[in-house]
Amino acid sequence: MKEITFIINGEKKSLVVDPKMKLLWFIRDILGLTGTKYSCGKSLCGTCMVHIDGKAVNSCSTIVSKIDGKTITTIEGLSKNVDHPLQSAWVKEEVSQCGYCQPGQIMKAAELINKIPKPTDDDIDKHMSKVLCRCGTYNRIRKAIHTAAEVS
Amino acid sequence: MSKTYSINRRDFIKYTGLTTAGLAFGFYISSAGKLIAQDVKTVFSPNLWLQIDKDGIVTITMHRSEMGQKVWTALPMIVAEELEADWSKIKVVQGNLNEEFGSQVTGGSASIRTSYDKLRKAGATAREMLILAAAIEWGVERETCFAENGYILNSVTDNKLSYGQLIDRANTLPIPKKVTLKDPKDFKIIGKSIKSLGEASKIDGSLKYGYDLQFPGMLTAMVIHSPVVGGKVNSFDSIETLKVSGIQKVFQISSGIAIVGEDTWSILEGQKKIKIEWMPGDNKDLSSETISETFKNALSKKSEIVLEKGDFTDEYNNSETRLEAIYEAPYLDHATMEPVNCTAKIENGFCEVWVPTQDPAGAFEEVRKITGFPKKNIKIITLKSGGGFGRLHAVDYVRDAVEVAMQIKVVVKVIRTREEDIKNGTYRPATINQVKSGLDKNGMPTSWFNRISGPDNVHHWFITGGSDDLPYEIPNIQIDYVRSKIDIPVGPLRSVGHIQNAFVNECFIDELANLANQDPFEYRRSLMKNNARQLKVLEVVAEKADWKGRNNNNKFYGIASHYSFQSYAAMVAEISINSKRKMKINRIICAIDCGLVINPDGVRAQVESGVALALTAALFGEITFKDGKIQQSNFHNYKLIKMNQMPQIETYIIPSYEAPTGAGEPPVPPTAPALANAIFAATGIRHRSLPIIKYAPNLI
C-alpha cells in the first residue's frame, strides 16, 4: 500500500492505495467517478481514456501509482456545465447513439484539439482511430471535432 | 417536499367515489400505473404514457428499451405531436415492466411500428381533455378552441391558457373513448429535425449504465464460465483467492464459479488465484472445421420447406445455363461496448433487478423461475444500455446475477470482463447456404433454390429469415432448410437471419447477372416490376450513386437491395484499391423506405450504425472454435471497424405516408453484399464466404 497525492478534476486528494491497482478501477470504484468506462481492459478500445497532465492515456492499463503528484481530468471534469466546445458540438451534431464510448471519444478529442487547434480529417483519423465505437458514430465525431475547432 | 402514498385504483374509487380521470386534487397515476397521492403538487395524467404538471412540463413514459436507437426521443415525439406539446417542455422517464404497457420487448425494428397508434391516442386523449377544459373555463363552445404548442387558444377571442393552467379542470373530466388524430400532413414534430433528449448525460459522465451502478453496501461479482462451451465445474479451490484483499465470497452457481468482492480490482486480482477443474462435456472436440463439415453434410439430408413455388427441380434441370454455389457465414458475437451485466438484490422474499435488457418480461420470468417468489415480489428496472443488437434478449446474465444474489445478503452487481463477454455470448449462428439457379435464353432466372444449413437450437427463422424475402419475380422457387445438433448458444443479432440470407440473395443474383452478361442494377430492376417500393429504393440508390455513369476508374461499385422487418433498403458500395493493393471503402449510399418517418436524423443514425455493424461483420467478424473453446477474446482478435476504415455514408429517406416501419435492422442486410459485389467489380474475385479478412487478407 502506498499514499498518493494528486489533483482530480480540480480537487486535491491524498489516499492510500494498492499501487498496482489499475487507474480505471481506482477512478470508478474508489473515487466513484463512473463516467470513465470499461470495455476491453487491454488498451484496445479507448473507452477508459482520461488525461494525466493533459495527456490522454488508457486508464485500464495505467497503474494508479503513476498519478502521484499529477493532475487528472476525467469526463466529469472536462467542464462545469457540459459546455466544453466539444460537448456542445457533440450535442449540436447529434453524435451519440448508445453513448458508452463517447466519454472516451471526447477525452481523446480534447487532447487532439489542445495539440492541433484546427485538425484536418487526416489528423482526426490518425488520432481518433484508437477509440472504438460499435454504433459507428465516427463520421459524426469527425464533424463534431471540426465544429468545436471552428468555435474555439 | 411532497409526501407520496401508494393506493391502488380500486381502493381509490371506493374511498373517493371518483370513477373518471377525475382525480381529485393531489392524486396522479405514476408510470407504474399506481395512484399516488401528492399533497403539494397536482399533475394531470389521463393515462400511463404522460403527465403534465402546473408548470406545463410534460413527462412522457417511454416503455421500450433505449440502447442507442433513440426510442427515448422518437416515441415521445409521437405523444408530443398529438398532444400539441411544446417540445422544449418534454421530459422522458423509463417505463419499467408493467402489463398495462403491452409488449415491452424491444426488437424486430418494431418499437415505432407497434407503438405508433397507441401513443398517438394517448397524446390526443390528453389534448382533447385540455381543449374541453379550456372551453369550460371560458364558457365557450368546444369547437372554438384548439391546441397549439402547449397552449389552448380560442379562435374567436384570442384568449389562451397554458396546459399547466388547465390541469386542475382537466382532472375533473371523463376520459373520452374516441379521439380525433391529426392529419400527418399537419405534423410539426414528427418528421422534423428536433433536438434528441437525454444527450447531455451521455457526454458528461452522469448516465449510469448497468456496469456503473453503485449502491451503499453493494458488492461486485464476476462469474468464471467454462472455457469449453457448455462445460461444467468438477471442482474448485478458492483458498488463495479468499486471501486476496477485498474478496468476500467464492461459490459455485449453475454456470460457473462466482467471485464476490468489495470492488472490481479485488475480483480481478482474486481471479488470478482461482483453481477450477472443469468437465468439458460434449463440446470438447468441437471445432469450426467440424461445425462446417456438419453443416455441409447436412445439405444432402431431408429438408424442411420455407417456400415452394412452381417446380424448381424440373425447371432447373431443363435449363441450359445453370449456376450453383455454396455460401458460408460464421458465428458472430454481439460485442456490445458495455459488457452484459445485471444487478440484483434479494431481501425478505423480495427481488429487485436492475438490468440492461431488451425483454424485461423475459428477465422477470427468469427471476420468478429461479427464486420462486410471487409476482408482486419481483421488480425489474430497465436500464439504458451501451448497445443491445439482440444480445439483451437473452437472460443468461440475469440468471447469473440472481443466483449470486441468492447467496449474498446485500445488493450485488454482476459484471464481466471483455474476455468473459466474448466467450459467453448468444451468437449469431453460422450457416452454409447451397444456392442454385437456372437461366432462360435471355439470361433471366426462371428457377431459384436456396437450402440453408445451420444449428437446431433455435427457431428456424434465425437461419432462414430473409431467404424468402426475395423481391425477384422468379416463377419456380424452392427455399428449405436442414438443421444439425450443435450446442453453441445462439441468439438474434441485428437483422437475425437476414444478415446472411441477404448476402446470399444479393451476391448470387449478382453472379447470375454476371453470367448473363447484364448490368447488375438493370438485371434486378427487370425482375421486380411489380414491387413498387423495392424498385423505388433500388432506383434512388442507383441514381444517387450515379450507377449509370460509373467507369471503373479506380472507383468500383456494388449494389444490393433487401426487404426486412417491413422496410425496404438498397445500398451501393463504392470502393477503391490503392497503390498497396489495399481496399478503401469510400462511400456507402443507402436508400431506405420505412414508411412515415418520425425522427429523420434518427433514421440516418440507424443507417450509419447498421452499416458499421454490417461492415465489421463482413470485414472481420468471426467466432471460431478449437477443442470446444472460443478462440477470440478481445478486440485485437475480434476486431471492430475503426474511424479510419469507416466510409462516408449518404442516406436518402423515401418520403412516405405509409404506416411507419423500422430502421434499426433494415440497413444491415444489404451492406455486405453491396461490398462483396463492389469487390467483384474491382478484383474479379467472388467472395462467397465471410469474413473478408480471412479470405482476402491482402485487401485490408
Protein described:
The complex is a heterodimer of chains A (152) and B (700). Chain A has 152 residues and is of the alpha+beta class. Chain A has 5 helices and 5 strands; from the N terminus they run ββαβββαααα. In chain A, a hairpin with a 2-residue loop joins strand 1 (2-8) and strand 2. The relative contact order of chain A is 0.16. Chain B has 19 helices and 30 strands. The chains are: A alpha+beta (152), B alpha+beta (700). At the A-B interface, helix 1, helix 2, helix 3, helix 4 and helix 5 of A face helix 5, helix 7 and helix 17 of B.
Q: Which overall shape of chain A is indicated by the principal axes computed on the Cα atoms?
A: globular
The percent range for strand residues of chain A is 15-25%
What's the overall average pLDDT of chain A, rounded?
A: 97
What class do helices, strands and sheet pairing of chain A give?
alpha+beta
Number of strands of chain A: 5
The most extensive interface between chains reads:
A-B, 59 and 58 residues
Strand content of chain B: 25-35%
**Nearest-integer average pLDDT of chain B:** 94
Helix content of chain A: 25-40%
